[in-house]
Amino acid sequence: MKKIRQREVEILLVEDDDVDAESVIRGFRNAKIANTITVARDGVEAFKLLRGNGETGLNRPNLVLLDLNMPRMNGIEFLQKLRQDDRFNDTVVFVLTTSSAEEDRVESYRQHIAGYMVKSDVGPSFKKAVAMLEHYWTTVVLPE
Predict the structure, then answer these.
(1) Could you tell me the CA-to-CA distances from 87 to 2, 17, 112, 143 in Å, in that order?
(2) Deepest in the core among 31, 36, 58, 99, taking most CB within 10 A?
(3) Are 88 and 60 in contact (CB under 8 A)?
């Protein structure tokens, strides 16, 4: 039987709110999870990082945590563009947003997200979300 080796999971956090971004990072740190987390402030910046435009490139993330309500390119627009790009269309994305609107949830799932979390439901410490995400990536084999 071949054993699958667990590897470090790289996370791209697409979040324009500095307080929320820091809360997510602190949630991982408090849970003693030292995964690499790169923060992009909106979809435009996230694509620059993914494509390596400019001086800072990013290894392909194993997991994207995506806010929906952002300037320049919102989360839905980012998802649509991500799914149209052959290099990134299989990227695992979890939406982490303030929006509990049915149309946002439906459109996000149409873009093949792995899960939709409303920030007020997971709490300000993001403890539940972090625990769920850690369980997810230690159980599921992610694409390389």
Answers:
(1) 27, 27, 15, 12
(2) 99
(3) yes
Domain membership of residue 60 as a residue range: 11-114
Number of compact structural domains in the chain = 1
Domain with residue 25: its CATH number is 3.40.50.2300
- Distinct helix (H) and strand (E) counts, the chain: 6, 5
The predicted model scores a pTM of 0.84
- Quick check: is 35 in a domain? yes
Q: pLDDT, tens digit, for every residue of 91-143?
A: 999 999 888 899 999 999 999 999 999 988 776 657 777 777 777 777 776 66
CB count in 10 Å sphere of residue 45: 19
